[in-house]
Amino acid sequence: MDYSALLLQIENQLQTVHKKGQNYMNIEAMPRVELRRVIEGLGAIIPVEKDISQKQQEKQTSFPNHPDQSGMIQYKNTHPKFFPPPADIAENQDKGNKVKQQSLTKAFAQIVIHQESAKKINTLSELFQKYEDCQRCALGKTRKNLVFGRGLSNATVMFLGEGPGADEDAQGEPFVGRAGRLLTKMISALGIERSDVYITNIVKCRPPENRNPTPAEISCCLPIIKQQIKILNPKLIVTLGNIPTKTLIPELPGITKARGKIQQYENWTVLPTFHPSYLLRNRSAMPLAWEDFKKIPELAFNN
Ligand code: SF4
Fold first, then answer.
1. Which of the four, 24, 103, 152, 270, has the lowest number of CB atoms within 10 Å?
2. Structural contact between residues 279 and 175, judged by C-beta atoms closer than 8 angstroms
3. Which residue has the higher pLDDT, 54 or 163?
């Protein structure tokens, strides 16, 4: 059986089902599997299958040590049903089939492990434990501390910045430098304690020289913030600046236009406003930011 062709066929069929908007399928004796992962799994296997068939083909055509080349030509031109292949070729084909089967089983097993490990994380501390040694992007190599987030584990409002700076990196806590002190003052001016909210960033490790995180770094770190939001389930997410706002809702315009307008990210209400470090550089924007902040108590604390 041509497994490569079969897998390509299955992949095409799965792609068609997926395009129709069906995201899950049941595979016998397996838990519910996200279709995208099956497609990715098959995509990862197919090159292996091609390699295997190519190697088998090379073996069948070259046979450098075979004493009777003419015998091999005869075999190649003969129907295998009546003239079964020599034992060494049959053995190689069997081995190839076993490897293919193992590749599939392994890929599906990985899908299941991934899903089950994602299911088990129910608290922010479990999520932190999962990622505390994270090296998914290059920022992991240069950080002093991973800045996961700080605040009430059932806070109704989450403040979301872009990434830790030098002070945050040194202390392992978000928004503790000059911009952090301004944020704390603004929260207190609303009559709320900083300890009653949850504060975090899109990326958890400091980008060197305080540069913006790159799109690749953001996408590596995105699963963490997505899970933080799901676990915390806040009534309101206040995005501070362009990067967190456009990471959650890419279609929004720049922060100057988007600020102060209530938005929706999946199940959560989002209020975009300026980043405190922008306010330190542009004091004239402070009244606008304060207008936005005044909306927080109503959106986050009123039933
Ligand atoms: S920035 Fe995020 S993805 Fe990159 S190493 Fe740190 S925790 Fe991991």
1. 24
2. no
3. 163
